[in-house]
Specification:
InterPro entries: Aminotrans_V_dom (IPR000192), Aminotrans_V_PyrdxlP_BS (IPR020578), PyrdxlP-dep_Trfase (IPR015424), PyrdxlP-dep_Trfase_major (IPR015421), PyrdxlP-dep_Trfase_small (IPR015422), SP_NH2Trfase/AEP_transaminase (IPR024169)
Helix content: 40-55%
GO molecular function: alanine-glyoxylate transaminase activity; L-serine-pyruvate transaminase activity
CATH superfamily of the largest domain: Type I PLP-dependent aspartate aminotransferase-like (Major domain)
CATH architecture of the largest domain: 3-Layer(aba) Sandwich
CATH class of the largest domain: Alpha Beta
Shape: globular
Enzyme class: transferase
Number of helices: 14
Domain Aminotransferase class V: 28-349
Number of strands: 14
Largest sheet: 7 strands, mixed
Binding site for substrate: 355
Length: 390
């Protein structure tokens, strides 16, 4: 990472949950930028850069980014309000907790939702996607790239290929909140219409920015809709002129953007797309970090939630507790070693597992030693927990 920043964060507990994640000194310092007018030319040029660099991360030439104050959840609202008209069908591929939430959001806006559910720890098979798409006409098919509740990685390229072949008018919507910048996504080449994400995970920025990127095909569907948009704040009719203006380095106003967060996001994007580590090498670094953590998990005799390596995320690891141990035996011990991990989230197995994030600087900047700290702490905590039961 760049050493230009003289600001250094205070010592703190290592945050290795699946988001928010550790951010670099430069990003945190940029978030402390002096207050700026969101209408100023200086800020407009920074916002414009963010729009252009967001495309680069997804390997897209002409997709339309929307950078809006909010969490990743706002992306679901944008899809539901702008692309799916009331009474239209939506197909949700279920690999964990967040598919249920996306389905709930779509239903809230009047969509008819069907789900194809994979067993816990697995992704939906492409053959099952094909069968579902042949059963009726769907406006969208949604797939969670990495479901944070299970650590399952879905094959979004395969889902897009099946959709294009079987139901070419159906839009492919990827929930990439826990995958963008830690997993490869080639939006144009793979035929993906929407990528939803947020600032606080692989993009290495504090939380608070909802990021959605829409293909030109999706934008045409939006422009040709027959019924009114069913949201005010999430309406692309409101936001599209704003994004166009800022990309031309000219300010415009609908609602106040999170100015300081945009400065932080700009700094992180520059580190990702213009830094010494290429995007391709960044993805390799996440795979290497993931492999290290998962090898240690296996060596300790523990079992991951994903059923196979093929469906295992590279930015996080979900781990079952060993027999006889629970969250209260492991997580507080890790916390005492200044390592913050996350408990379970999936309702069916919530008390049976915990989750470790290894995204962004933690995975890419080896000199930080974050992965080493996690491994040492995990070994010690497990040994101490077992000894306490002996």
């Amino acid at each position: 990472m760049s050493q230009e920043c003289e600001f250094v964060q205070e010592p703190h507990k290592l945050l290795v949950i699946p988001g928010p994640i550790e951010v670099t000194d430069e990003v945190l310092y940029a978030n402390a930028h002096p207050s700026m007018s969101h209408m100023s030319p200086d800020f407009a040029s920074v916002f414009g850069d963010c729009i252009r660099m967001t495309r680069q991360i997804l390997y897209s030439e002409d997709a339309q980014p929307f950078l809006i104050a909010g969490s990743g959840t706002l992306g679901w609202d944008q899809v539901s309000a702008n692309l799916v008209e009331p009474g239209e069908n939506a197909l949700v591929l279920h690999s964990g907790y967040f598919a249920d939430s996306f389905a709930d959001c779509l239903q809230t806006y009047g969509a008819n939702v069907d789900q194809v559910k994979a067993p816990i720890g697995d992704a939906v098979k492409e053959s099952d996607v094909e069968t579902a798409l042949k059963s009726k006409k769907y406006k969208v098919v949604t797939v969670t790239h990495v479901d944070t509740s299970t650590g399952v990685l879905s094959n979004i390229k395969g889902v897009a290929e099946v959709t294009r072949r079987v139901s070419p008018d159906t839009l492919v919507v990827v929930d990439g909140v826990c995958s963008v910048a830690s997993e490869e996504i080639r939006m144009d080449d793979w035929g993906i219409d929407i990528v939803i994400t947020a600032s606080q995970k692989g993009l290495g920025t504090p939380p608070g920015l909802s990021i959605l990127v829409a293909s030109q095909r999706a934008m045409k569907v939006f422009q040709n809709r027959k019924t009114p948009i069913t949201s005010y704040y999430a309406s692309w009719k409101k936001w599209l002129p704003i994004m166009h203006a800022y990309e031309k380095n000219s300010a415009a106003y609908f609602a106040t953007p999170p100015v300081n967060l945009i400065y932080a996001y700009h700094t992180s994007l520059r580190q990702i797309v213009q830094g010494p580590v290429s995007l391709e090498d960044r993805f390799k670094a996440h795979k290497n970090a993931s492999r290290r953590v998962k090898d240690v998990v296996a060596a300790l005799g523990l079992r991951c939630v994903p059923l196979s390596e093929d469906v295992s995320a590279n930015g996080m690891t979900a781990i079952y507790f060993p027999d006889g141990l629970a969250a209260s035996d492991i997580i507080p011990r890790l916390l005492k070693k200044d390592v913050v991990v996350a408990g379970g989230l999936h309702a069916s197995i919530k008390e049976k597992y915990f989750r470790i994030g290894h995204m962004g600087a933690t995975a890419v900047d080896i000199e930080r030693g974050d992965i080493d700290r996690v491994i040492v702490a995990l070994n010690e905590a497990l040994a101490e927990a077992k000894a306490s039961k002996a």
